[in-house]
Amino acid sequence: MRNKIWIVGMGPGREELMTAEAINILEEADVIVGYTVYIDLLRRRFTGKELVSTPMRQEVQRCRLCYEEAEKGKRVALVCSGDAGIYGLASLMYELGERYPGTELAVIPGITAASSGAAVLGAPLNHDFCTISLSDLLTPWETIEKRLAAAAAGDFAIVLYNPASHKRKDHLKRACDILLRYLEPERPCGYVENIGREGTKAVTCTLRELREIQVNMFTTVFIGNSQSQILGGKLITKRGYRIERDTVICGDN
Ligand code: SAH
Predict the structure, then answer these.
(1) Strands 228-231 and 234-237, bridge-based pairing
(2) CB distance 82 to 109 below 8 Å
(3) Domains along the chain with CATH numbers
(4) Whose CB has fewer CB within 10 Å in the chain, the N or C terminal residue?
(5) pLDDT of residue 253
(6) What is the mean pLDDT of the chain?
(7) Mind listing the pLDDT tens digit for each residue in 59-110?
(8) Sign of the alpha-carbon dihedral angle for 237, 139, 95, 9
(9) Is the CB of 161 under 6 A from ligand 1?
(10) Is the dihedral of CA 12, 60, 136, 35 positive or negative?
(11) Closest-lying ligand 1 atom to the alpha carbon of residue 113
(12) In this structure, are residues 30 and 76 in contact, taking their beta carbons and an 8 Å threshold?
């Protein structure tokens, strides 16, 4: 039988926001591998497992370790926050897989921060949208700038992942400066910190205000499109439905 590794998206952090399939797989696994913060979140819930954590920035090592454990015949689950195929390790696992032909992979989807954060803010992604990561660790900043400009020119609602890191504090400000070349300063925006975890904080603001905000690495940022509004404190992007005036229809019965 071939070895198997499950690449599991665990959602934003709370168990209720994990899928039943993800929970079943973690219950069945012998070893759970992941980034330190996520392993700590799982420690209490999934007892009796071998839990292996590796720090951030050691992604290749973490993935190799999964293959090595699987080759020993163990059932291995690699956990990623949100969805493992959205700024996660799923593609790297497939790339490395060419060196481990005896091991099969399965990706288990999870709720990504765009979805869980949008739900907290209201309905900011209710039309065409795109996600852009502001991390320039693996992507040149010029490419990120090009994508921001194209998204703004295309009137997409935009979700920004990785708006800040320990080292780079000004990425969001630089991104807002590019967006402000295309969008009005009053464009409705919002951000959510610690989605699905203790201390969830959601804020709505304008693009001009967003430029001045210091966010942290556990924040997801939302920029509305031309049809977005802040209604009753919620950020929403209209789809274009026409709402008729309420009419009273009187019938015979
Ligand atoms: N695979 C993940 C994304 C990993 S990239 C997913 O699908 O959600 C890391 C970025 O995701 C963070 O910088 C932040 O922008 C966002 N993020 C992930 N989890 C989050 C959470 N619980 N609260 C707020 N933002 C989160």
Answers:
(1) antiparallel
(2) no
(3) 3-111 (3.40.1010.10), 114-237 (3.30.950.10)
(4) C
(5) 55
(6) 94
(7) 999 999 999 999 999 999 999 999 999 999 999 999 999 999 999 999 999 9
(8) negative
(9) yes
(10) positive
(11) 8
(12) yes
